[in-house]
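Example record

One chain of 207 residues, shown exactly as stored in the release files.
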Amino acid sequence: MKAEVGGQGECVNYDLEMRVMATAGFVGFPNAGKSTLLRAISRAKPKVASYPFTTLQPHVGIIHYDDFEQVAVADIPGLIEDAHLNHGLGFSFLKHIQRCQCIFYVLDFSLSSLTEQYESLKRELRLYNEEMIEKPSAIVINKMDLSKDSTENVQSYFPNMKVFPISAKNKENLEPMLIYLRQEYDAYVAEQQTKINAEEDDYVLKF
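Predicted structure tokens for this chain:
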């Protein structure tokens, strides 16, 4: 029966940032074979070609295990030097890695020193966000079909790391990498369940 004009309403602007969610992220330089690897282990179909920056958007593939567990893996577009300064599309690529529980550094055997590739990738992650290099990680050396070295010689480059020499193109030696991925996934799930149980116990004690 009676109305007032009312006060001035509030207007708020929000910036929403979308990030891919996956258990593991493939990190590497352009043409290291990340998309080929994703196609080899999942049903995802990212574009594959022989020129740099074929992948311009992250792709997520789902790996199906024999016990019907499904694990998401993200193909992160290739990084370049000084990506942490937003060179190229640096931030657009790096932000997706923050949501991954573990990182697979995909190195290209056909390029220069493997250790140099690894240190350069790790440097870009560290300078963007120091917490990212604290995530569980492993090294995937791709294009081993071009190698004359034995697996043992390649693994000796990284004595303190999990190393998986593979050929994504030929789908060779992928099983050890998938087993490691599943172990990391199970460990993460167990950790999250422990946190949930602790919070529930704390809630019961309070009330």
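Notes: The chain has five helices and six strands.
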